[in-house]
Fold this protein.
Amino acid sequence: MHSRTRPFRTPVVLAALAALLLAATGPAAGAKPPARTDAGPGTNHATDDPFTSARTAWWRQDRFGMFIHFGAYSNLEGEYTRPDGTVCRNAEWIERECGIPREEYERQAATFDPAGFDATAIVRAAKDAGQRYLVITAKHHDGYAMWPTRQNTWNLRDHSAFDRHRDLLAELKRAADAAGVKLGFYYSIWDWHDPDFASPETFPRYKKRMYGQLKELIDAYDPALLWFDGEWDADRPTNRWSRRDGAELQAYLHELNPHLIVNNRVGKREVVDGDFGTPEQEIPAEPVDGQLWESCMTLNDHWGFARYDTHWKPAATVVRNLLDVVSRGGNYLLNVGPDRHGRIPRASVDRLRETGRWLAADGQGDAVYGAGHTGLVAAPSWGAVSRSGDALYAAVTAWPTAGSPLHLTAHSPFTVTSARVLGSDQRVAVTPSGDGFDLTPSGAATGPLATVIRLAIRPPAAALASRGTGLTAQSWANDSFTGPPAVTGVDPTLNKSYRFDGSPDPTIPAEHFSTRWTGSVQPRFDETYTFTTVSDDTVRLWIDGRLVIDSSSPHGPRVDKAAVTLRAGHRHRIRIEHTEQTGEAYLKLLWSSPSQPQQVVPQRQLYPG
C-alpha cells in the first residue's frame, strides 16, 4: 500500500504449456510473459457481469475482510536508525522513504524470523471479528516474496532466519480452508528490488518473473482473489506498467483460473480494470458507478507494523464504517500489521473481537452479510440503511431522545409491514410522514456501537419476469457506421471488454470499428431508472427516440449516466452506438433503480428489433 492516501478514482492448452515452461526454466534474457494465443479480433474478455455472477457471489455476500500487511519491512517495526544516529519512521515504505541502502536492507531482511506467526490464531482473529475473507501481502513494493518462490532468492525461505521448512502462505491456506474463510493475496507490480524492473530493455525479463510468481501463487495456494497494487506512474525506480500490461495480465490470470476475482489495480485503477474498485482510506459518499468496490482502511495510521503507532480506531468507528460501506454497496477490507515475530498486536485483536461481538449479537450481522445498497430510501443523517430481500436494516448510530422520531425519506413507494429493534422487545411506531416514514422507538439504544431496526417491507409491485433474448447488433469494420455492416446478430447483453486486442467479430480488426444495437428494454418496476454506460472510445444512448447519453467525443475509460422514467412491463425502444478508434475498446450498459440494484442490463429484459 501507499503510505499516503491516493484518490479513488491460444488455445488454452498452449498458454498453459507456455506458463509451465516459464515456471520450470526461470528467467531468460529478453524473454516475454506467456503470450495469449487465443487473443485477437473477435475476443470479448468480459465473461460475466461481476455484479451478478456466481464467480463473485461469495465476495458480495461476505462484505467484510481482513487485510494483512506483513513482510521484510515488519522486521524493522517502523523505525530505522541512520548512521548519524537520527531515527526515521515509516512502515511498509521504510526502505524507500528512509533511504535505506539496498545492502543494508538486505542485511536486516536476513535476520527476519517470524517464528511466532500462527496461522490458526490469525484466522481465528478474523473469524472472531466477523471477517469472512483474508488478503495477505505475498509481495510488497520491496519485492520480497513471502513464499518459497522459484523465480529468485529474495524471499522468506532463501533470505531470512526463518525455518526453511515452513511456508507461511501454505499454513494460512490450510487454516483458512479449515475455518471456511476465503484467502487472497496482495501482489505489488512495482518492484524496488528487481534489477530488471526500471529499464525498458530489461522490463520484459521482470514481467516474465512476475508472471512466473503469480502462476506459482495460483498453482500452489489456489487463492480466491488477487489484490494488485503499485500500478501507478512513479520513479525510484521508474514504473513502466501500462494499461495494456494490465489488460494482458488480467486475461492471463483468468486463463489460469476463470474463477479468480481481481481488483482494478491490475491495470491503472480505471473503471474498466479488474472486477472491483479500491478506494483507499476513504468511503465513497454514494454507490460507485459502473464497478463493484471495496474500501481498504487501516486500524491505526500505518499498514505495516509500527511500534510507536497507538492511534487505534475504536470499535464504534469500525462498525460505523462497515455499515456505511455496506449501505453504499461496497466491501470493507480492514488491515492489521503483524509485528516482526508475526503476531497481530493485541490492540488490533481487541477491536476486531468487539466488532465481531456486535455482528454476532441478535442477528445484527444481517445488516451486513448479503445486504447492500437500496435505492428505496435516502441515506439518513442518523445512521445507515441496507437492504436484504424484503427487509431494510436501519442501523442507528445517533439514537433519538425518548419520543423523537427517526425520519426515513422514501425514493419510491413501499409499505412497512413490521418494525422491531434487534436485541430488544421495545415497540417501534412507523408513521407515514411527508416524503417517507417516521420511525419512533419506545426505548433506549441496545448498545454504544449501533442499534439496528429491522423493517419488513412490501416493495413496489413488479411486472412478470421478461423473456427477452437480447438486442440486434450490427457491427462495421469502420468507426463511422458507413456501408453495409460486416456482421449482424443478436447480443444477449451489452457487456463488451474488447480491451486492446478484441473486436465484435473475427472479420473485424481490433481498431476502427463501430456497433449499433437496437431493440427494446422491458423493466419490471414503474420507476426512474439510471442507465450507466462504461465506454472507450465513444457511446450514445437513445431511449424511446430521445438521446439521453451523448458521449461522442473520443475518450478513455469513462462513466456516463442518465435518469429515465420507465413503465413496468412496457417495452421501451432502445438504441446504443459505440465506436472504437484506436487503443482500448470497451462498452457496458448497466441500470439501477430504487428497486433494482446496479447490474448489466440482463438478457431477459432486452428484445431485438
